[in-house]
Amino acid sequence: MTSFRRQQFEQLWAAFDAYVDDEVTVQQDLCIGELSVSLTIRGQELSRIVLSPLRRRWVSGNHASAQIRVWSGPLPRGHHAPTELRLLDPGKVAPDAGQHEEHITAMYAPEAVTYMLWDSQRQRGIYWIEELNRLPYWEQSAPLIHLFHWLNADHGVALVHAAAVGRNGKGLLIVGPGGTGKSTSAIACLAAGWEYVSDDYSLLGGSHPPRAINLFGVGKLLPNSLEYFPELHQEIVAVRGDDDKSIFDFTQNYGNQVVDSLELVGVVLPQLGSEPQGPRNISRLSAAVALMPSTVFQLRTVKALAMHQISETLRSLPSYAITFGPDRTQAPNQLGALLDELS
Amino acid sequence: MPNQPGYSLNPLDVISEIFDGEAVVIQMKTGAYYSFSAEATALWTQLLSETPIDDLISDGDPSEFLTWLANEELLAMSEEASSAGKWAEPGPGPLGVTKFTDMADMLLADPIHDIDYDADGLTIRNEE
Predict the structure, then answer these.
(1) Are B13 and A288 within 8 A, CB to CB?
(2) What is the span of the domain harbouring residue A252?
């Protein structure tokens, strides 16, 4: 028997095929770690927004094991939005994925009138926003992030709110809530020639050792941090309206430094201070408190396999606090000393 | 009939992980999160395995801590246990718990960051 949620998914999935206009549809395969996914996006503008930050993940000729359909605008005649999703308890999460037959994860964002659904069983995703001009600003730098979270979680890979940078294939995971210096230190490392996975959202996969895996090839900085990196100004592609953060596209001029993944050798909790201070050992609990809540609260859906990966990563790596001084461009020196010691 | 634990946990709203004998506990609904000392974690671990209140092993009286957990919505007390006087007045987290509320606003404001979670807002649930 087909469940109600399955029916909702299938009806919305089918709606994508029912348009009879001549709107452009763009198809792009991505390789994310060990996974391959095919995106099909309706509309040039939406395609540009979604695909640009993912440029380093583009591949051709792969056999994609997952499919995601992305579109905006009214549904074709005879098709209806799954408005029942709006009536479910807000903020409810389920602890696991993939345990149920016909497993569907669903999310509705009311302000943007956006529906996101993931079919763990058949590895298919839907992102439908009713009006493109209501596209949330964060989609410019982290498009489809919930769908990528659910897709990866099905395969034991965790999307985390953390930066990751490194050299010679070895890297540090930089954790902490917003405003602690993750982005600034990661982008300072990129400017210094380091390998770059992310300044904000990284994927964690594997064990012995765990790896940080690239998803988006972008970065973000607040205006007061921009002054440290004049050489990067030409990489700015947008300025977000809400917080004036500049969004950098590193996939072109710095594309060689945006690496597929890094072997992690340590976890760093950055702190900002008046004087730089070298690395100090911190407990795994401290690292977990810095990483897990901000990840869970941002992604909102808790997936057991992803939580297990996060826990195992933190358990397997040493953790340190580093205080960066007022000159953020010195962050690579401090991080580099630690990386050399651990590599 | 097996001894009832006297409380219930809500795995949909509360997530916890233990590192080196200390737990990080996240309350999804309120946006608060906590680091538990080894002593609190020892008791928390027993609660996770649904040890009945009367069988809990603790250096002191665990009832104050249990009531504090209930007030933080980290567990719910049963009516039977409550009426049997197994719950104390709430304490300040007497077993060495640090509470963090710096991310509570993220539930209302931040995007993935800032998605809204109002009354009929963002909806997240897995199919049963």
Answers:
(1) no
(2) 158-342
B84 Cα to chain A: minimum distance (Å): 32
Domain count, chain A: 2
Please say if the pLDDT value at position A19 is more than 90.
yes
CA atoms within 13 A on the CB side of A23: 20
Do both A140 and A285 map to the same domain? no
Q: How many CB pairs under 8 A join A and B?
A: 156
Identify the domain boundary among A131, A154, A177: A154
Distance from CA of B40 to the nearest CA of A (A): 14
A91 and A128 together in one domain: yes
**Contact between A110 and B116 using a beta-carbon 8 Å cutoff:** yes
Coil, strand or helix: which one is B116?
Answer: coil
Give the span between the Cα atoms of A195 and A261, in whole angstroms.
9
Contact B17 A292 (CB under 8 A): yes
Q: Are residues A72 and A112 in the same domain?
A: yes
pLDDT of the residue at A247:
92
Q: How far is B45 from chain A (nearest CA, A)?
A: 16
CB count in 10 Å sphere of residue A248:
27
DSSP states of A70-111: EEESPPPTT----GGGGGSPBT---S-SS-STT-EEEEEETT
Of B11, B111, B125, the CB nearest to A88: B125
**Amino acid identity at A33:** G
The interface predicted TM-score (ipTM) is: 0.80
CB contact under 8 A, B19 and A300: no
Q: Are A140 and A24 within one domain? A: yes
| B121·A311 Cβ contact <8 A | no
pLDDT of A87 reads: 57
pLDDT digits (tens, 9 = 90+) for A206-218: 988 999 999 999 9
Q: Which residue of B has its CA nearest to A111?
A: B116
Lowest mean pLDDT segment, chosen from A1-5, A261-265, B95-99: A1-5
Do A118 and A174 reside in the same domain of the chain?
no
